[in-house]
Amino acid sequence: MITKILPFNPLEVNCFVCYDETNESVIIDPSCGDENDCLQLFDFIKKHNLVVKHVIITHPHVDHIVGTARVCEEYNLPLTMHKAGLSQFGMAIQHAEYLGLKLDRLPDKHRYVEDGDVIKFGDSELKVLYTPGHSDGSICLVDFAGKTVFTGDVLFHSSIGRTDLMTGNFDVLKKSIYEKLFVLGDDFTVRPGHGGRTEIGFERYNNPFL
Fold first, then answer.
1. What backbone torsions phi and psi does residue 179 show, to the nearest 5 degrees?
2. How many Å apart are CA 78 and CA 180, to the nearest integer?
3. Which residue among 52, 64, 118, 147 has its CA within the 20 to 30 Å range from the CA of 100?
4. Cα angle vertex 138, ends 34, 131, to 5°?
5. How many angstroms separate the CA atoms of 154 and 140, rounded?
6. Contacts (Cβ under 8 Å, ≥6 apart) of 200
7. Residue 141, phi then psi, degrees to nearest 5
8. Among candidates 83, 22, 7, 13, which has minimal Cα distance to 53?
9. How far is CA 122 from the centre of its chain?
């Protein structure tokens, strides 16, 4: 599986485009902050002749969902997410204004996934792990074949997600990390929602919050 990283909006959220030799693909966290960001994403997909099968968010914080309506409309797809995050959508437009982001609508069609579900595209699979603590509705996505996990804002290089926001809980977040992520091999690459990659093993032994 090939992964393209496109950091979008002033908070530099990593939007991931994952695809394989079949040219089927998924978009994780379509965080496009404006039309130029959207066009950059669309141009990459068109240039590589990709067929988008799923548009997924790791959690419902506004910096990760600001481009969801535009992207879902472009590819005529529902937004794939965990249902526990839906309640936070009602505050997203207000939060966008506070952060200086433009958000006037959100997708009205959703596909809900649960812990243990598998999202398939082409010859690839992403397993869903429900990982609350930073936010209700937070999920991580594991590519076992490529030994990679997309962690959203759950786990970063030498850091973890904030727990002082609505529905955040430090103890719950630690439990999610220990029980869902640290059971993966030390050689699994971590691709977080902000910043650069790390590895499970490095975070297991060096992360100061854990």
1. -90, -20
2. 26
3. 52
4. 150
5. 8
6. 149, 181, 182, 184, 185, 186, 187, 188, 190
7. -125, 125
8. 22
9. 19
pTM above 0.85, yes or no: yes
What lies within 8 Å, CB to CB, of 184 at 6+ separation is 142, 149, 200
Strands (E), the chain: 2-8, 13-19, 24-28, 51-56, 79-81, 110-112, 118-121, 124-130, 139-143, 148-152, 155-156, 159-160, 189-192, 198-199
- Count the residues in the chain: 210
Q: Which residue has the tokens 């598998």?
A: 118
Q: Where are the alpha helices (DSSP H) in the chain?
A: 35-47, 62-65, 68-75, 92-99, 170-176, 200-206
